[in-house]
Amino acid sequence: MSFHALIVDDSSAVRAFVRASLEDAGFARVQEAETGFEALRLLASNTFDVVIVDVNMPDINGLELLAFMKKSPRQQAARRILISTQVDGPDSKRGLQLGADAFLQKPFEVEQLRSLVRELLEGVEEASS
Asked: Distance between CA atoms of 53 and 85, rounded to whole angstroms?
């Protein structure tokens, strides 16, 4: 089965790293957003299986994007992964309240990301079988 992913991070290096990690793992479609505003546009017009979003961004932050996704019928099934240099504290608690499925602390390894994504999407694949 092929999956559709969205990567939201203001760092082009992080987006490239995550994209390569997902594409090498067999994702058929990976889209990127450099800003929260760009991500909102993509979230409003696409359905994603997994959304990987940085907490700290200069315009709309990752927590605000999660709040949008929580209210969006189009994104109800999407798995949500927050990435940040700090995963402990108020942002992680708020992220869980807003529907984050997992956190990854930057920097992370390719296999950490792939394993987490596979784990989160196993239920999606089984439900569609």
From this structure: 12
Judge contact between 92 and 103, C-beta under 8 A: yes
CA–CA gap between residue 125 and residue 38 (Å, rounded): 28
Please write the tens of the pLDDT for every residue from 30-59: 999 999 999 999 999 999 999 999 999 989
Domain count, the chain: 1
| Residues 48, 27: Cα–Cα separation, whole Å | 12
Q: Is 52 left (phi over 0), alpha (psi -120 to 50) or beta?
A: beta
d(CA 77, CA 2): 15
Give the domain CATH number at 34.
3.40.50.2300
